[in-house]
Amino acid sequence: MKPRVLLTRRVPATVYRRLEEACEVDLHGEAAAIPGDELRRRVADKDALLCLLTDRVDREVLEAAPRLKIVANIAVGYDNVDVASAAARGIVVTNTPEVLTEATAELTWALILAATRRIAEGDRAVRAGRWGGWALDYMLGMQLSGKQLGVIGLGRIGTAVASRAPAFGMSVAAASLPGQPVSPSGGVPLPPIVTVPLDELLRTSDVVTLHVPLTPDTRHLIDRPRLARMKRSAYLVNTSRGPVVDEEALAWALGERLIAGAALDVYEREPLVHPALLPLDNVVLAPHLGSATTETRTAMADLAVSNVLEVLAGRPPLTPVHP
Q1: CA geometry: angle at 54 spanning 107 and 104, to 5°?
Q2: Rounded CA gap, 131 and 190, in Å?
C-alpha cells in the first residue's frame, strides 16, 4: 500500500506526477490556505505533510497525526512549523534552502531600484494622468553609485545580494546579530565587506536590506529607535520575514520623513498590510514575490517532494531543519 501524503496546495504538474507515482496524494486544491480544523482532520491518517508557509503546523496539528513521519515545508523559512514539537514526536521537518537564493536576491535589487528611483510611484502618476511631462526637478530619486549597502544577515540570500553591489557601484557593510556571526555563505565572489555593529550600520548605510530568519531575537528588530538612527536619506528593504519590521513604527518613520523610503515584500500579518502604510507614496509594497519565478517555485516543490520520498523510504532527508 502506498504511503499517504497530504498536499496543502497545488504544485507544478511534473512535480505532482512524481509524488503521485510513489504516494497516495490527498490534495487541498483550493487557492486559500487550508483551515486549521480541516488540516487536523485530513492529516490524521497521513505519513507525510507537504505544506506552505501559510499553513500553521502547530502542536495540535502534529498531535492529530500519529502516523506522520515528515513535514516538508515548501519554503526556506519554517516559522510556521513547531519544529520543537515535531522533533519531540520524531517527525522530520524539512525546508527548501538554496534553490530560491538567486530569485530572492534579484527581487531584493528590484525593490532597491523601485524605491530609490521611485518607479512604482511614477507608474501610478502616469496611469492616473498626473504626469505633465519632463521637468528638471520632477520625482528625483537617489543614485546608488558611491553609496553604502547595509546587509543585515549575511546568509545565502544576503551574500547573493551583497555580491551584486559592485554592479551598482556600492560598497557593502554587514552587521552581526546574536547567534548569527557575519560569515558570507555560498562561495560566490564578494566585494570587500566591512563588518560593523548593527547601530553603526543603520547610522551609515544608504540602503539597509534585511535577510534574517524570524526568531525571538529578530522579531521587531527594526523598531522606532532603530529607524530613528537611520539617515533621513536612507531606504529600508525587507525580503526576509514580515515581523522583523515593526510596521507601525515604519509607517511613523516614513510619514515623518525620518527615512526617505522603504520597500517591503513581506508583512507582519500577511496578506494584511498595516493600513498606515497604504496611502504612503514613499513605500513600495510587493505581494511576497521573493521566490516567484517559474523556475524557483518548481525547484522548491521538487525539493520538498524529494525530502518526502527520501524519508518515507527510510533514508535521511536532504535538507532537514533542526530545532
Answers
A1: 15
A2: 40
Measuring CA to CA, which residue among 63, 84, 70 is closest to residue 4? 70
**Confidence (pLDDT) at 314:** 97
How confident is the model at residue 186, as a pLDDT? 58
Grid cell at residue 58: 502547530
Query: What are the strands of the beta sheet with 171-175, ordered from one edge?
Result: 193-196, 171-175, 148-152, 207-210, 235-238, 261-264, 283-285
Angle (CA) 115-206-174 rounded to 5° is 115
Give the whole-angstrom CA distance, residue 318 versus residue 44: 25
pLDDT digits (tens, 9 = 90+) for 252-263: 999 999 999 999
CA dist 189 and 135 (Å) reads: 40
The residue assigned the cell 522579531 is 219
According to DSSP, the residues that pair with 283 across neighbouring strands are 262
**Catalytically active residues, by annotation:** 241, 270, 288
* 106 three-state secondary structure: helix
211, 151 contact by CB (below 8 A): yes
Distance, in Å, from the CA atom of 283 to the CA atom of 254, rounded to the nearest integer, reads 8
Question: DSSP string spanning 281-308?
Answer: TTEEE--S-TT-SHHHHHHHHHHHHHHH
**Residue 263 DSSP SS3:** strand
What superfamily would CATH give domain 101-285? Answer: NAD(P)-binding Rossmann-like Domain (3.40.50.720)
Report the topology of domain 4-99+294-312.
Rossmann fold (3.40.50)
Number of H helices, E strands in the chain: 11, 12
Write down the pTM of the prediction.
Answer: 0.91
Q: Answer whether residue 185 shows pLDDT above 80.
A: no
Domain 4-99+294-312 identical in fold to domain 101-285:
yes
Could you give the count of Cα atoms lying within 13 Å of 229 in the half-sphere of its Cβ? 16
